[in-house]
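If you are new to this repository, start here. Below is one unmodified record pulled from the training split, so you can see the exact layout before writing a loader.
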Amino acid sequence: MRHFLLATIAAVGLALPAAAEQRFEARLVGHAFLPAATFAAPPASAPPGFAVSGRFAGATTDRVARPGSVMGNTGPAYGSRDTGISLPFQGQPIQGFSGIKPVGDGSYWVLTDNGFGARANSPDSLLMFHRLRPDFATGGVEVMRTIFLSDPNSVVPFRITTEGSNERFLTGADFDPESIQPLADGTFYIGEEFGPYLMQVDAEGRVMRIVETRLENEVIRSPDHPSLGVPATPAGTVAFRARRSGGYEGMALTPDGQTLWAMLEQPLFAAGTDRAEGNFLRVMEFNVARAEWTGRNIRFQLAEGATAIGDFNFIDATRALVIERDNGQGDPGLECREGQRPPACFVQPARVKRITLVDFSQIDANGFVRKVGYIDLMAMQDPDNRARLRGDLPANAPAGRFTFPFFTIENVAMVDADHIIVGNDNNLPFSAGRHLTRADDNELILLRVPELLRAR
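And here is the target side for that same chain:
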């Protein structure tokens, strides 16, 4: 793949013809979900204290000891709506899926992110990934295996939460894993946001390698990098360029297994400033065999209204799927109007939620990858009534329409020549996009999109 891109970029040179994006239709053919309140026991060898999680994830980071004593809430940006699930939790929540990869037998690797959304509130959240099998006939999801991340060989170069323990399990105060790619040798690469770093772990989740981010010979750090202690907006002498929660939300492996392309979730700050360098994301090339950055990067232009991406996976040697999203959640038909207040309505409903097809064989003179077309996740077809959860909708909602109105949608992969799978990150217990006053479940949808997958 890497040699092909080199030749292609050189040959294409400075004058690719412009091509408009085309919208394609998506048809819902399967819908499965894991209930929000699904939990796993910590490993027997974990240090004491992990049988309960979310003790620091309330309105403050003060410890809350009694399970179920603090109601989950969407926060003021989304109308301060209660979600019906309370913290702390008995057990470790299997939630927040961020990154998906088909195994090939109907099951999928999925990654649970850092826990409760921040370094400060997630020290009792163990990091893990899972092998799941959705059953689109029944709507259920089987959790086949859970693998907890650990650092028993002290590879991580900074102090971790469980420092001094034998197994050295990793927590959401150490890393924020957001994307996952299995390799042919049984190991996994994970893209994370705090560094941002690339992490390589073995088949049991033990850390083998931590890789700092480099862009054009510059080390790229976020305000959550362990070497920094700074606010989320640069001031004075700028020490970082990646945004908080702006690390590797998407990371795609080429089909030959030789190259990782790691995509940042949000635009970088321009060097030496507190302003975005543009409405685009950097996508950086990493050589798997050498375990190092190649120095090459390209740019992904965000769609109008989109603020971030959610996932990124190749479908063949040059084409890939990317989730683009805004920060809204909830059906736009229930947007708060004059005289309405939450929880009866959504103050910031979802509008831009799409799966975009890009072609890495077409890079323009400014380094932008070509966007071929997209599907709109807020206007999918469901003529056969396959949806198992429709949520709160306006009375005049069109029949046969299905939406995916979540704040964060962070899983997309091709299933076969006609179908893709898409999943949300439910941010337990803080997101409520399907219902006004109910925490989101972990939903997985199977979409028939043959025209999108054949587009060039």
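Two things worth knowing about this chain: Helices lie at 2-12, 450-454. The CA atoms of residues 354 and 376 lie 5 Å apart.
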